Prior knowledge:
Layout (H helix, E strand, L loop, with lengths): L22 H6 L11 H10 L5 H11 L13 H9 L3 H13 L3 E3 L11 E3 L3 H11 L9
Antiparallel strand pairs: 1-2
Helix pairs in contact: 2-3, 3-5
Amino acid sequence: MTTARPTPAQMPRRAPARTAASDADRQLLAPAAAPAGRSLRSLWEEAVLHSNMPANVRYVGIALATHADSTGHIAQQPRLQGLHHETGLHVKQVAAALTVLRSRRFIRQTSVTDRYETADFYLTVPNAVLARYLKAARPERTTTDA
Length: 146
């Protein structure tokens, strides 16, 4: 069975902007913790489903999240072949989706140099998404003149 290859319209429009921190420094940063009352996995799934990423990237992300616990740790890693079998997408499509998820900081690898066939992943919520959620969850303050 063959699957359709991704078109240029399904790929991200541009690469994310680079900051002064190097990739090695980014790996040392701890993943954002979920707010009280929410599991990291549920917040992560909501963020992925409401993102503007292509559908096949969100599909691979949700397939990866099914293996994670509430803290985002994936005990039994599905690896590239496992995600290929679970989603039915071509191996290269799964690899491209993992690259998009990693570049947008929705997943983190234990080692950046590992290939997808052997890499271990962790779910992370990007700081911008977490800040947006916290802002929406915070009740509005009203000021009164006394």
